[in-house]
């Protein structure tokens, strides 16, 4: 059971619980925070989440805050929701989950929430929606599916927009859930694809091990070797470094009599970080992660590539997302590219639906970002 810090305040006259930048683990949670004088959990009407890390919605929140009328979740990693997550909030009228990772929506999600008039799933990754999702919602005035994979429509009763009939047709035509048989085929295809990737990794690992064995056989002892980077010379153990770096293993094999090697494409500080990682299996706190990721790829150190990528993914923000996208494309790292592009979509272009192909076109995306920032600056100067 995990503890979640909540900030209590007022928003447009409603007593609110705001949960910001929290990691919600699976299972039950406990809410911590100081109420405004005289208020209790039962007085909370609005519940807001922003920049939180959770895959499934914590159901016991309904017991903590039984009288919620507005639920807003923004820029979080929420991927799954179900009817049981919200069914006790009978008075809910405002429901918004935007800039998250939802992919599929069941038809019964809102079956118990007949008073809803505002629903938004803007900027998620929705591909499948069961057609009966808004059946029975007679008070609905606003419905937003813009910025999703298979649907990009919205309805507002007071503004010129798509109609509910158009949205229902789009859901039926383009968001039809796949049959069990289709899902089985897709999972099989994904498994085959993963196996293919794993096979390629095994081939490279096998190559590295063969190279290492050749080096071990050729050496009568664990001889030292010098790698010169800039003005600094690093004394290394050939066997240790060959066991981690495929590129160094190739160099040691191809030049068995060499005593030293000059590394041209890495800075002294970055190679020191590489050196420390190979010797201690830890990434120094002051390391430049972008430069370290580049060096790890050049030297083909797969354990370091994986470790740095995980840290980069956890720390992607508006200031570094484009730079991370560039190196992800340069070294064809799919997961890093996906997360960097997701941040660009939600943080830099929150009101624009970006073509997914732009994730692999960094130069084109760079021009778009520079133009947006220029326009934003011009607006700022007018104030």
TrEMBL record:
<dbReference type="Pfam" id="PF00651">
    <property type="entry name" value="BTB"/>
</dbReference>
<dbReference type="InterPro" id="IPR032675">
    <property type="entry name" value="LRR_dom_sf"/>
</dbReference>
<dbReference type="InterPro" id="IPR000210">
    <property type="entry name" value="BTB/POZ_dom"/>
</dbReference>
<dbReference type="InterPro" id="IPR001611">
    <property type="entry name" value="Leu-rich_rpt"/>
</dbReference>
<feature type="domain" description="BTB">
    <location>
        <begin position="223"/>
        <end position="287"/>
    </location>
</feature>
<dbReference type="Pfam" id="PF13855">
    <property type="entry name" value="LRR_8"/>
</dbReference>
<feature type="coiled-coil region">
    <location>
        <begin position="178"/>
        <end position="219"/>
    </location>
</feature>
<keyword id="KW-0175">Coiled coil</keyword>
<protein>
    <recommendedName>
        <fullName>BTB domain-containing protein</fullName>
    </recommendedName>
</protein>
<dbReference type="InterPro" id="IPR011333">
    <property type="entry name" value="SKP1/BTB/POZ_sf"/>
</dbReference>
């Amino acid at each position: 059971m995990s503890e979640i810090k909540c900030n209590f305040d007022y928003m447009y006259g409603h007593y609110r619980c705001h949960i910001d930048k929290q990691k919600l683990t699976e299972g039950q949670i406990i809410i911590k925070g100081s109420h405004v004088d005289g208020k209790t959990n039962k007085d909370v009407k609005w519940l807001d989440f922003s920049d939180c890390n959770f895959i499934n919605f914590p159901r016991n929140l309904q017991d903590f805050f039984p009288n919620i009328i507005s639920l807003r979740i923004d820029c979080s990693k929420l991927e799954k929701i179900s009817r049981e997550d919200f069914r006790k909030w009978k008075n809910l009228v405002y429901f918004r989950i935007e800039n998250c990772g939802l992919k599929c929506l069941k038809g019964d999600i809102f079956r118990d929430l007949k008073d809803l008039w505002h629903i938004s799933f803007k900027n998620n990754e929705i591909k499948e929606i069961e057609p009966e999702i808004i059946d029975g919602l007679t008070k609905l005035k606003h419905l937003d599916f813009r910025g999703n994979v298979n649907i990009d429509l919205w309805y507002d009763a007071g503004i010129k927009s798509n109609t509910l009939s158009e949205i229902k047709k789009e859901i039926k035509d383009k968001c039809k859930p796949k049959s069990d048989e289709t899902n089985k085929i897709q999972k099989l295809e994904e498994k085959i694809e993963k196996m293919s990737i794993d096979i390629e990794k095994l081939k490279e690992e096998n190559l590295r091990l063969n190279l290492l064995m050749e080096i071990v056989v050729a050496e009568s002892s664990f001889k030292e070797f010098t790698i010169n980077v800039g003005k600094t010379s690093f004394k290394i153990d050939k066997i240790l470094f060959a066991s981690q770096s495929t590129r160094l293993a190739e160099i040691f094999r191809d030049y068995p009599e060499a005593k030293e090697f000059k590394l041209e494409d890495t800075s002294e500080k970055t190679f020191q970080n590489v050196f420390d990682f190979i010797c201690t299996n830890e990434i120094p706190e002051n390391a430049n992660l972008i430069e370290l990721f580049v060096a790890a790829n050049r030297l083909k150190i797969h354990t370091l590539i994986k470790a740095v990528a995980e840290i980069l993914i956890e720390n992607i923000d508006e200031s570094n997302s484009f730079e991370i996208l560039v190196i992800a494309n340069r070294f064809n790292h799919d997961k890093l590219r996906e997360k960097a592009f997701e941040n660009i979509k939600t943080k830099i272009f929150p009101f624009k639906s970006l073509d997914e192909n732009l994730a692999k076109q960094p130069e084109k995306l760079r021009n778009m970002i520079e133009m947006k920032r220029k326009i934003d600056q011009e607006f700022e100067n007018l104030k």
